[in-house]
Amino acid sequence: MDKRPIGMFDSGVGGMTVLKEIKNKLPNENIVYLGDTKRFPYGSKSKETIIELTKKGIEFLLKKNVKIIIIACGTATSQALDVVRKIYNIPIIGIIEPTVEYIYNKQNIKRIGVIATNGTIRSNGWEKSIKEKINNIFVTNKACPLLAPMAEEGWTNNEIAKLAISKYLEDINNVDALILGCTHYPLFEGVIKQVLGDKTEIINTGKTIAEFTKKLLKDKNIENKELNNDYKIYLTDIECNFVNIAKELIKEDLIINKAEI
Amino acid sequence: MDKRPIGMFDSGVGGMTVLKEIKNKLPNENIVYLGDTKRFPYGSKSKETIIELTKKGIEFLLKKNVKIIIIACGTATSQALDVVRKIYNIPIIGIIEPTVEYIYNKQNIKRIGVIATNGTIRSNGWEKSIKEKINNIFVTNKACPLLAPMAEEGWTNNEIAKLAISKYLEDINNVDALILGCTHYPLFEGVIKQVLGDKTEIINTGKTIAEFTKKLLKDKNIENKELNNDYKIYLTDIECNFVNIAKELIKEDLIINKAEI
């Protein structure tokens, strides 16, 4: 039993799609969420910069006395997770491992597509992690650099979103499942389903992370067993569209705090 | 008479639209162009970061023995120009001043629209500079954060570009002229013309900068009077779509060099 909050870090509000799933799956847990909206997007930044910013984010969360940290950002996971795990003495979960675990446990996925930011696709982190754990799996990668900026504009379900997604998914045919390798992408889930049809399973990393986190808290015996949920949202820049997106996703009147990091 | 090159700095390849106009207007001049593609886009970065990166860019160009510097980036102009002008002892031209000069000399522009990145619009640099010099002018601003990333994707003349531009220009009606306040935007000039029709003059800052630079070189007597043009392009990251866009714009077989800054 451990009432300390779960810490979550993202480059913006994309990680809110993960927060939503954690909230559903682990309703007792307190959460401190930090979105580095001032420096968004991470997708086009160098590895060194992403490591530096992720360290700053983690240090902010450590001061909030969190018990575990979820890096709810595809780019920060693929570029910085290995490094920060060696520095900080706290369990840190990224978005790749829980999803690979999920695919591993499903026997029917043999051909998989991954969509993500430029930085994530270039790092090849998804393909490497999938193939390390699973034999005989075919992976197709596609960078979709416009999707995260479109999500921040709130353009997730208009004609522009539909056309952009159709264009990006042109080359991804005949896969059993598609991983949404950036935490913004579940915002486009409706449109992606329309484009791909029913045959393809869409893997929302928020759901796999929530499942993985639940198991980790249980294994370490650090669950919060009393209903005591408190969500604290910090953003490094609060004058942004993100606030509306976050509120829409979470469907609660969130109080947004400014974080100076 | 001065054979030293003109230095140009941009966050990416947007400044190539300026290079194209300089090349047309000042065919004798040698040019060294630096595009900070590794750190693109600047539009969403903090003022401090943009100043730091612009200083690095200028120092790179100074080592190339340039005679003047053009900051061919809307965001760097609005956030960093004032600061760097105080630091470096070389004429530095941004994208705002030449355009304000152009509007000042035209009597018929009374209502003007400005489209640019988030950072540029938030800084209010365009509106302030226009109103400082010109009385009784009405200015409407609109941030278009997706356009520069779309330009890098090469999506400048497809259905997605048309829809995005129509959406962004919805609120800009009845202006005499529209300033393309980001140097990427001339890549969309065809589509913007289709959306706005003939009544609105589209001001390509590349053209106003070329005119302004020509006058400045003449006034200071540092023109290159012999035909001796040499274009050196440096990018901080050369694995990018930008190379194709640059080549298409300039219609020459450009040699792209990697700059380590």
Write the layout of secondary structure elements.
The structure is a homodimer of 261-residue chains.
Chain A: E1 6-10, H1 16-25, E2 31-35, H2 47-63, E3 68-71, H3 74-87, E4 92-93, H4 96-105, E5 111-116, H5 118-123, H6 125-133, E6 138-143, H7 147-153, H8 159-169, E7 177-180, H9 189-196, E8 201-204, H10 205-219, E9 231-235, H11 242-250, E10 256-258
Parallel strand pairs in A: 1-2, 1-3, 2-9, 3-4, 5-6, 5-7, 7-8, 9-10
Helix pairs in contact in A: 1-10, 2-3, 4-6, 4-10, 8-9
Compact summary:
The structure is a homodimer of 261-residue chains. Chain A has helices spanning 16-25, 47-63, 74-87, 96-105, 118-123, 125-133, 147-153, 159-169, 189-196, 205-219, 242-250, and strands at 6-10, 31-35, 68-71, 92-93, 111-116, 138-143, 177-180, 201-204, 231-235, 256-258.
Name the descriptors.
homodimer; 261 residues; alpha/beta; six-stranded parallel β-sheet; four-stranded parallel β-sheet; 11 helices; 10 strands; 17% strand; globular
